[in-house]
């Protein structure tokens, strides 16, 4: 057994939906005792930092039901089964913004909430945007509004908590530290 490994003794699926699966595992802890773990299984997701020719970042504003409010985020979406993250990034960029790109650069991947979920988020950046003449339709239950902000404006939105999610905060910090804008 690895130093901190928890051995699964039993696993029970409680719920399986369109996006997540909730399971409860009985585990043996490194000290020999047992405990329960509530886990969310997620297919993974991507997010894109789209930069316009005039050095603005394209964000989307959308209502987030778990928060009961709208927030401003970089475009993002979940991976479909077997879909390459880069392909997902382009699909989500097109659906949410009406832009496409032929050049994506991977910035990072990270687990969003490893204490209870296995969602792996892949972040890409592009400054090679092309407006689509016929953008694909958004998901029927998705309502977004595009917002273009300079890096300084985005930082002010972070301070005001209008940008208030981890992936978008990461994107703003990344742009600031890389001095790309």
Automatic annotation (TrEMBL):
A single MF term (Gene Ontology): hydrolase activity
InterPro entries (alphabetical): Nudix_hydrolase (IPR020476), NUDIX_hydrolase-like_dom_sf (IPR015797), NUDIX_hydrolase_CS (IPR020084), NUDIX_hydrolase_dom (IPR000086)
Keyword annotations: Hydrolase
Nudix hydrolase domain residues: 40-171
Cofactor(s) required for function per UniProt: Mg(2+)
Pfam families, per the entry: NUDIX
Entry coiled-coil feature ranges: none
Gene3D superfamilies: Nucleoside Triphosphate Pyrophosphohydrolase (3.90.79.10)
Superkingdom field: Bacteria
Enzyme Commission designation: 3.6.-.-
Family from the record: Belongs to the Nudix hydrolase family.
Protein name per UniProt: NUDIX hydrolase
Organism, scientific name: Ornithinibacillus xuwenensis
Higher taxonomy: Bacteria, Bacillati, Bacillota, Bacilli, Bacillales
């Amino acid at each position: 057994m690895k130093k901190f490994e928890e051995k699964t003794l039993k696993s029970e699926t409680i719920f399986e939906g369109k996006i997540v699966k909730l399971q409860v595992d009985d585990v043996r802890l490194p000290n020999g005792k047992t405990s329960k773990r509530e886990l969310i299984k997620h297919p993974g997701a991507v997010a894109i930092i789209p930069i316009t020719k005039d050095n603005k970042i394209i964000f989307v504003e959308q209502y987030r039901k778990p928060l009961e409010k709208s927030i401003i985020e970089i475009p993002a979406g979940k991976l479909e089964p077997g879909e390459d993250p880069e392909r997902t990034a382009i699909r989500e960029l097109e659906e949410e913004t009406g832009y496409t790109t032929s050049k994506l650069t991977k910035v990072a991947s990270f687990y969003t909430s490893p204490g209870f979920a296995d969602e792996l988020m892949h972040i890409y950046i592009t400054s090679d945007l092309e407006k689509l003449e016929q953008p694909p339709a958004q998901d029927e239950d998705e309502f977004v509004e595009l917002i273009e902000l300079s890096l300084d404006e985005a930082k002010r939105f972070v301070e005001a908590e209008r940008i208030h999610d981890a992936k978008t905060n990461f994107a703003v910090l990344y742009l600031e530290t890389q001095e790309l804008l």
